Amino acid sequence: MTEEETVVQQMVVQQMVVQPLVPPGAATCTVTFTAIFTRITATRHGMNGATPDSLMLSPTDQFHLRRAYDEAVIGFDEGGCPIGSLLARGDVVLASGRNRRVQQGDPIAHGEMDALRRAGRQTTYRDTTLYTSLSPCMMCSGTIVQFGIPRVVIGENQNFGGNEDFLRERGVQVVIANDPGCIALMERFIREKPELWAEDIAQQL
Description:
There is one protein chain. The protein is α/β, with parallel strands linked by helices. Helix content is 33%, strand content 24%. It has helices at 59-77, 101-104, 111-119, 138-147, 164-168, 180-192, 194-200; strands spanning 6-18, 31-42, 84-89, 92-98, 129-132, 151-154, 173-176. Helix 1 runs parallel beside helix 6 (180-192) and helix 6 (180-192) packs across helix 7 (194-200).
């Protein structure tokens, strides 16, 4: 394989049991589904900061990241910033959320913050993973460090990034998926609503 090649291989078909989100006190159930374990073999070229551990996502990672992406799509359809997030403890989803700055008129309602708020109080975060469709801003990165979340799976950091080293330097494992869907969604949003994007990241056009 040459330096410029990127090979995507479909690997293991594996079953997982996932507990869906339910209101407090409601009866719970489990859902078994089949996930395709995709191994990405690539060089550093074009991976935009990806590390070796980011080149392989487990079926659980893929499922949770897809759900974060789905939240981002909902946010886009609502007229907001399309950034979704999810907090999980292994296979169990604690909460998912999305950027609601526009919908709620709340400048702090980023996707990661929304997911953490909806997850409620936790006795510990040290066995959790936070999934986000876009690389977290400094506010959300600081919250990740403050709560002691040990692992973050990022859908993409091509449209926005820069805080991955901040997280790594503080002991957080950072996994960058370079997901084509996440990349395309943000590219469309930035192209169609540049003023709203500039507002979200506190920059002048």
